[in-house]
Amino acid sequence: MNRFKGKVVLVTGGATGIGEAAALAFAREGASVVIAGRRVNEGEKAVDRLKATGAEGYFVQTDVTREAEVERLLETINSRYGRLDVAFNNAGHEGKQAVVSELDETAWDAVVTVNLKGAWLCMKHEIQQMRKQGGGAIVNMATNLAYVGRPGTGAYSAAKAGVLALSRIAALENIQAGIRINAVSPGPVGTPMAERLFGSLENQRKRLETASPLGRAGKPEEIAAAVLWLSSSESAYVVGQDIVLDGGINIQ
User: Fold this and answer.
1) Of 49, 93, 172, 240, which residue is the least packed, with the fewest Cβ within 10 Å?
2) Which residue range or ranges hold the Ketoreductase domain (predicted)?
3) Domain limits of the chain?
4) Alpha-carbon span 45 to 147, nearest angstrom
5) How many beta carbons lie within 10 A of that of residue 93, not counting itself?
6) Active site (catalytic) residues
């Protein structure tokens, strides 16, 4: 399939995990993919993997919590490609796990700034570009923890719930301009973040054998498939929605 042939796609946090899986999936379907992230070495290696498939890829070092850097990112995309058709705002940080009564202000600020402020800043400037060109699609990364409670994840869950609220409002504000905005909310997925949270992917696997109705973690490629669908014309009637991909955890 070539659903994104001739399209320009931005993936923030696209060097590893779900972001990288999405970047590779977009590239396989014909897109020119821009990866944005803070770590230059990882970002450039991810672009090399894109190019190895024959795709067009480009890395822009960006801290999504700094508006000047997000502005520069969009200016770079516009200068290089002249447009932005799809944005997957995936950059995020799970932060320190602590119960609400023991969560310190620095840890709270770090998580909320990356996950919520970062998503807002990216959307702000992506929308401005897409309005100029007459449309586009945006998918924001949330989490199933915005729906279900897990002690110790207060800052992360609150920030991602904020992303969902922001996504719905921005969707309403921009659909008449031809910009569709939606979100995905994964549960446990086999990524570097999962290794940090569970100690290892093997620990994650053992935990989910009984904790998840499906009995396993998700694969980055499974989340990427949903992101691509939401970004494509196949989901043209989907506006301001969230797809939960967690193997049934949130319906228990």
Assistant:
1) 172
2) 7-187
3) 8-251
4) 35
5) 18
6) 156
The two three-digit tokens of residue 204, written as one number: 């994650």
Q: Tell me, yes or no, if the pTM score tops 0.90.
A: yes
Q: Minimal CA–CA distance to 116: which of 89, 84, 96, 139?
A: 89
DSSP-H helix ranges across 175-219: 192-198, 201-211
Contact between 183 and 9 under an 8 Å Cβ cutoff? The reply is no
Give the amino acid at 96.
K
CB distance 126 to 10 below 8 Å: yes
Under DSSP, is residue 135 helix (H, G, I), strand (E, B) or coil? Answer: coil
pLDDT by residue for the chain (252 residues), tens only, comes to 799 999 999 999 999 999 999 999 999 999 999 999 999 999 999 999 999 988 999 999 999 999 999 999 999 999 999 999 999 999 998 788 899 999 999 999 999 999 999 999 999 999 999 999 999 999 999 999 899 888 888 999 999 999 999 999 999 999 999 999 999 999 888 666 655 555 555 665 656 556 778 788 789 999 999 999 999 999 999 999 999 999 998 888
Place of tokens 């702000």: 124
Q: Does domain 8-251 have CATH number 3.40.50.720?
A: yes
